[in-house]
Here is the input.
Amino acid sequence: MLTGNIFNIQKYSIHDGPGIRTTIFFKGCPLSCWWCHNPESQSSIPEMIYWGNKCIQCKTCIKCCPHNAIIWENGSLLTDKEKCTLCGVCVQKCPTIAREIIGKKMTVEEVMEEIEKDSVFYCESGGGVTFSGGEPLMQRDFLEALLKNCHQKKIHTVLDTSGYGEWHFLDRISRFVDLFLYDIKLMDDDLHVKYTGVSNQIILDNLKKLSKKNKNITIRFPVIPGINDGVQNIRDIGEFLTSIHIDSIELLSYHHIASGKYARLGKVYALEGTRVPNKDKIAEISALLRKYDLAVKSGG
Here is the structure.
């Protein structure tokens, strides 16, 4: 039975495409962006997340762990990731739900059941389902099966993607995607490698090819202060999009709301102290992009 790794299903979403939507978050991503607001999406395997603010330090988790993976040290609970098998016993026994396993396998049928629960909202609002992540292109068979099921049931589909994947697959599924939300971050390849971990060549080449199919594409550009908000990068994006006849872009302002997730996952947040871009900066970027005849929207 075909299964995929999912870490969240968000109901009543209004920021991931038109209307009221159900957003399916795939676990696993080939990129490791410094500003990623879903760090729990990067690894393709389940992970333990620890909510320190919920913990009452009762040490029940230490007592019940069958692998002795949890210890008390210097006034804190620490988990040895090499010993932890994610068996879930500590999650079940924790009286305050301070421990949680992120990510689970779901069948196509299980995901479709969740999607169809909200079908009445899709009809009334012009919404549908959005496949996001992580990177959905990493789970090709699972994504394709879901897209085909939605297509058969006439459910509007959005694919939110970095574009980092094999073209022949992207080409094959494109007829089942009603709208692409396609990320562009940095045009300079060296900087793209530095801040995301991968080259942008596959991403840009795929976007060129996709644009020739006259697909409905909206570019999403995360505005990260000091990294990609410089004039040259903005101009390069504008020129590139104009050259491939894409006419709309959405600006997503950096925020640090997700910084706490890194701590709960035991990861280091690389952009600690980075400030949220102010309205004047977003207006400046918008004005520059409009010079390339782009329809610019400021998102969340």
Remarks:
- The two ends are 37 Å apart (CA to CA).
- The chain has a mean pLDDT of 94.
- Residues 47-102 form a domain with the Alpha-Beta Plaits fold (CATH 3.30.70.20).
